[in-house]
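go over this:
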Amino acid sequence: MRTIFKIQTLILVLLLIAACSKESTPIIRVDSSSDISFKAEGGSAAVSFFSSANWTAIVSSQWCTVSQASGSKGNNSISVNCIANPSNTARECTITITAKDTYAVIHILQEERIPEPISSLIFGKWVIKKGTPTGFLSDTKFSHIINFKESGNYEETCYSAQDNTNNGVNTFWESQTLTGNWKGGDNKIVLNDWDGKVLDDTLHLVSVNSSELKLKFKNTVLTYCKEDQQFANLKSDITGNWYSITTLNYKGYYFLKADGAATVISYEKFFNNYISSGYSGTWWLNNNDLILHDNKAAGGYNYTYQIFFINDKYLGFKALVLEKQ
């Protein structure tokens, strides 16, 4: 009899242990999908679930929150809130609902933000007018032309110095053209050449209209005009004081006044010394040519300089560049 009683007691204890063990393993059942997707602008979504025990919700990223971080057992519903994605890359996080040793994971995916396209007004060929001339992917000294093509390709023309010191005569400027492709959005432009060299500093589009483009490069604002507008204000652009910087045997100073009066002071190298000369006269423009009239010459004499580029810093002729004083 005692043996039967012991057996019954043992069975009862085992049943109690099994019952306790069953109660100690909570159940979490998510009624909604375990994957929730949001658009780039963000939003909210409801998640319904059942938990057989008290629960907590843990979110892995700050850009996603839940309306309730904990609760009691039973049927529950929480709101998942996602803020706008400011980046151009998709992002993910998780929400983990735990009840003792049981958990359920909800995966959150948010789309990347599509950047606002660069204004189509940027398409075309632009010539620098203000700011220190610079090449974005190569150095330049005197002028810079950039052509943003609608196809996504681009072209840079840089005017730089080319030494010709073998005969000690001149230092000429020359143009170099680079090509590559560009992409942009949110007023940011990234350039890379065909060899895959990416611009170290992002270009920022400050403003653009049909005739003027402003770009910020390395904390400097550069102003460009359309190529066919390069000489639109030539008379006022050329007025002022200039001096030559690209010849070895000649130093010239040009004083061009708004009333058309001109004074030229030159220093030409003779062996190791410079011989000074100069003249006073008048100046005018013939299309894109600068005409200097020397009153001292017998009957007067005109010097013609074909202008290749002009900005607020440099004035370029064929083999001579003047810098603004």
